Fold these 4 entries.
Entry 1:
Amino acid sequence: MKKREVANKTSFIKQLTQAIDGVEETFAELPLITIIGVETISIENFINILEYTDEVIKLKTKLGVVSIIGKNLEARSMNQEQIKIKGIIETVNFEK
């Protein structure tokens, strides 16, 4: 095999891997957590809300409980698959 062909195949595999980044979490229904700065957190693939106050929001996921601790926490948008929380996020904990 020529060096150029090997380089092209390696590049293609790298591009494919980057393109499907995050897809395995969706298919496995694992939580996908995105934190933007200190004021926004988005959690996909949660099961339900266990606790909701302006200082603590606990979500049940397939892997356990995710606790968001902070001040002035508020669920700004939510559907069956995703919740977006705004406020001052101080801590994110994972409990089994």
Note: The mean pLDDT is 84.
Entry 2:
Amino acid sequence: MAIKVMVEDIPVEVKRKQIKNMYLYVKSPNGDVVVSVPTSATTTDINKFVLPRIDWIRRNRMKFLNRDIPKEKTYDEGTSVFVAGTSLTIKIEYAANQYAHRDGDYLILGLRNGHNPERRERVVREFMREDLSRRIERFLPEWEDRTGLKASTWQIKDMETRWGTCNMQEKRLWFNLKLAYMPDEFLEYVILHEVAHLKIAGHGADFSAFLDKYMIDWRDIKKTLNARYAEFL
């Protein structure tokens, strides 16, 4: 259950979970502040965690508040969508069965008569999920071979605050569906990042050294991803 508290002049959504540590997020597109806390955390504990980070919160909120909020996509004929970092123009065909496929610079949507924005979005998202699956199936084994680390399984899900997650105990990886929009270099960075977590839990010096060994420019890629991701969505 989530509640709202005020920390100075900033509303903070507090989510209590079965976790050991506290985690703070400033979420797109409106700069909403969310903190995940253990179920036992008190209001004093939450304030002690959030207050030292208040300047960081303000800076990151301003990035969102000063940014033009993208219009909701309707996936109409002639509009564009990014697939693996390439802008494709949507072209609609009327068909008995729904489908989507890429044809050069076009994303062809096969739709029944009477389709609506929600139907078009579902068809596009299904295509994006399948395309991202193919890309992960290509890149993940390569990074597993290079690092000697092997995931037991992986899945795709739509996440708000993370590009990927890793369950070390079960050796299971999750990748954000939004990576379907991103160029390969961003996807490969996230894959390596999550594969590294099969061995290293945190993001300390040993984690950075591991990434340095296999992707020397990962810091630049991460910075570019964080700065440009909204362009592709």
Note: The mean pLDDT is 89.
Entry 3:
Amino acid sequence: MCLSYCCTQFKKMQELTFEIESNQEIWELFDKDLDSIFIHKFMPNQAIEWWKTDLKTQNGAEFKNLSVRQMEMDVQTDLSGLKKILELNTNQLRIYQFEKPISDTLEMEKLPEKNRNLILKQNGLKHFFSVNFEFITVGSFESEFISGIELNPKFEKRIEDSK
């Protein structure tokens, strides 16, 4: 029993990288049964642009009509929120799909690189999506999830071309 459990605990993440044509295609890749989304270092606007916003802090302080730029944040949302974020057509995103919300104490920057995927898996990570302009890398601990993307007629040729 333990051998089977141990082997699944340490299963490596499988990855695919291929060209993507739109954020609508990115949306099609997500597991619609997993509603906990974490986006690491989300930037709602391009770094060089100044934009107006209001800001409310956790302790209730409010700032109205601020000019900000290079604003980046970690975001926890659900599939509905993810869909709205994808509609912004942001060029670079690091999206993690978990089976449950991540804890307040989990900070990506503090995770050791060599154990990062294992720690994230222990915290419920199922799939990872790294969008970098026209390319996407999809990672998953579930080989069936990766196989489903590889066999999807829309992505099959692009995946072959990238290998």
Note: The mean pLDDT is 90.
Entry 4:
Amino acid sequence: MKKFLFASLLMSSFFIFSENISFSGDTMSGRAGSKEDVTRLAGNAKVATDTIEISADSIELSGKDFRYVGALGNIKGVYRESNLDFECSELKYDRESKIVTLLGDVKLRDLENDVAAAAQMIEYNSNTDIAILQMEVRLEQKKNVCSAAYAIYRKKEQMLELNGSAKVVQDDDSFSAQSITFNMDSEEITMDGNVRGSVIDSGRKE
């Protein structure tokens, strides 16, 4: 099938969102010259802006000046501003608010701080550098493995808030509570609610 490539079709989008947008795919449906209509890309679908790059099985652009981006299937992407990369099954992105929602076996990597996160849903706001993680949450950083039902990751401050069966494992040491606040730089841990811990000393005695 013929491949279509469109690069910044609407000049007004440069000023509203202060960024370029380009997109491509094996097939396209919709009217690319309309500000309001939906444009759908299928097969090797790709979208790139100054902020984010996305590839997927299919991508849908909608709203005025392609404000909204939706993607489905085998999604991979890079968040340039925040030095993150990600994989997931479904994506929703608002170019104006710069909030991306990742769904379905999400994997997110903070390349700057060497943090790997996984969850069933992650919402990331690049204006605040805050990620909200829900369901089957797991984060790994250096020797630390953190898990919970819900978490808030503050990238700038390197602070992690874990809630719901929260747990932090550091080598052979383990800490669990209903909620845990973890400073990923200093490794300071604050726990609250049904607190439990297991620490093994250098002599391997519990």
Note: Confidence is low (pLDDT under 50) at residues 1-16.
